[in-house]
Prior knowledge:
- By secondary structure, the protein is an alpha/beta fold.
- It has three domains: 2-54; 58-142, no CATH class; 152-250, CATH 3.30.1330.60.
- Helix content is 44%, strand content 19%.
- The chain has seven helices and ten strands.
- The strands form two sheets. Strands 2-1-3-4-5 form a five-stranded mixed beta sheet, covered by helices on one side.
- Helix 4 links the parallel strand 4 and strand 5.
Amino acid sequence: xxxxxxxxYTQWTWIVAVILALLLLWMLLTGRGPSHACCDKAESxxxxxxxxxxxxxxxxxxxxxxxxxxxxxxxxxxxxxEDLKSWLAEGSDWQLEGDxxxxxxxxxxxxxxxxxxxxxxxxxxxxxxxxxxxxxxVPPSSVVIPEPPEVAKLYFDTGKSGLPEQAASALEPTIExxxxxxxxxxxxSGYHDPRGNRESNQTLAKARAQASKDALVAAGIEESxxxxxxxVETEGTGxxxxxxxxxxxxx
Length: 251
C-alpha cells in the first residue's frame, strides 16, 4: 500500500515539474520572463533621461507658476525664479516665455514710459546675456496726445512796432511746437483800438505782426508755414494794452 502511494507522489511530482518547465519555456519564448521586464524598465528609464537631456531648454513663467522643459544646466538666471515671480506680480497679466537666451514679456501696462522702465528692470534681473522682447501693450486711453501751446500774446508800446522785451519768452513754446510739428503752421493777427486814424492804426498793426513774423523766421520757421491775418479793430475791453497786441496761434 505504501509503495503505491509513493509511486503516485513521484508521478505527480514529475507532472508538475514538466508543467513548470513548459511554462518557463513559454515565458522565455514570448519575452514575458522576469529578466526581460527588468531590462525593459531600465532601458525605458535611460531612454527617458537621454530624451530630456537632448531637448532644448524652454519655459513659461507667471507670478504663480514657472514651468520648464529640456536641460536647464546652463541657465544661470534660473536661480532667480522667485525674484522673477515677485516681479511678474506687479502686472495683473504679465507673462514670460522663451529660452535661455531670448525672453518675451507680454501683458499690458499703463504707459510707454513705464514699459521702458520695466525692460530695464527685467534686464537687471536676467543679466546682459539675455535678449528681452518687451511686448507689453499700452491701452489707447493711456496714450497722451500732446496739445499745442496757448496763443502767444505780444504787447507793444504805444505807437511802436518793435518787439517787446518779453517777446522771446512768449514765443518760445510756439517756436518749439512748430519745429517739432512740421505739419502745423502759425497764424499771426494784429490788433488795434478804434481811436485815431484807422488807416494809421492798421498800418501799425501790420508792422507789429510783421515784426512777430520776422522773429519766427529768424528762429527757423519757413515763411510758407506762417499766415498773416487782416488787422482786427478792438476796444481792448477797457485796457489799451490789450488793443496794442499781436497774437500768434498754432493751426
